[in-house]
Amino acid sequence: MESPLGQESKVPVKNKFKKFAFIALVCILLIAAAYYFICGLTYSEGTRSGVLTKVSKKGYIFKTYEGELNIGGLNQGDGTIMPLFLFKFSVNDKAVYDSLERNQGKKVVLHYKQIIKNFFWQGESDYFVHQVTYVH
Questions:
Q1: What is the pLDDT of residues 91-102, one digit of tens each?
Q2: Pick from 66, 51, 54, 25: which is nearest to 109 by CA?
Q3: Other Cβ atoms within 10 Å of 83 Cβ, number
Q4: How far apart (Å, rounded) are the C-alpha atoms in residues 130 and 113?
Q5: Is-contact 129 67, C-beta < 8 A?
Q6: Per the domain annotation, does 3 fall within a domain?
Q7: Domains in the chain: how many in total?
Q8: pLDDT at 135
Q9: How confident is the model over 100-123, as pLDDT tens digits?
Q10: Residue 93: inside a domain
Q11: Does residue 54 fall inside a structural domain?
Q12: Which CATH number goes with the domain that contains 90?
């Protein structure tokens, strides 16, 4: 279609841009949904037991709850235990974090879920503790 001045109309270019923008938006949304699904997908579930050695609230902007559990160690003979393996974990639930903070240094069993990949605001670890059992 020609305009009164003899120039071609720009309508087809606008339609192509709208179609491209729509396809790009759909692709971005599909990729975001897939990433969100992968980040929330549980890879494994289980328990770990040991002595709770550290719990902390970390981060500059996104505060996350982090902790370490001493799974096993080598007894030095004088009552001290050198850690052989530290299990690092994150906690999403403030009530679970508060419970861990009150019982630091005690023997516990942590019930966790391991996810494939975490978002940076969820925590530093792929292991998320959702329940704590205290060993007497």
A1: 988 899 988 988
A2: 51
A3: 15
A4: 8
A5: yes
A6: no
A7: 2
A8: 82
A9: 988 888 899 999 988 877 766 666
A10: yes
A11: yes
A12: 2.40.50.140
Judge whether 1 lies within some domain. no
Place of tokens 């052989």: 84
> How far is Cα 78 from Cα 56, in angstroms, rounded to an integer?
28
Distances in Å between the Cα of 1 and the Cα atoms of 9, 12, 17, 18, 42 are 6, 10, 19, 19, 57
Per-residue pLDDT of the chain (136 residues; tens, 9 = 90+): 455 555 555 557 677 888 888 888 998 999 888 877 777 777 788 888 888 988 988 878 888 889 999 887 666 666 666 657 888 899 988 899 988 988 888 899 999 988 877 766 666 788 888 889 888 7
How far apart are alpha carbons 37 and 43 in whole angstroms?
Answer: 12
Residue ranges making up the domain that contains 49: 43-134
Contacts of 110 (CB under 8 A, 6+ apart): 47, 48, 49, 69, 87, 89, 129, 131, 132
Q: Is 55 left (phi over 0), alpha (psi -120 to 50) or beta?
A: beta
Pair (90, 36) in one structural domain: no
Give all strands (DSSP E) within the chain, no chain letters.
42-58, 64-75, 81-91, 107-115, 127-134
Q: Is the entire prediction scored with pTM above 0.85?
A: no
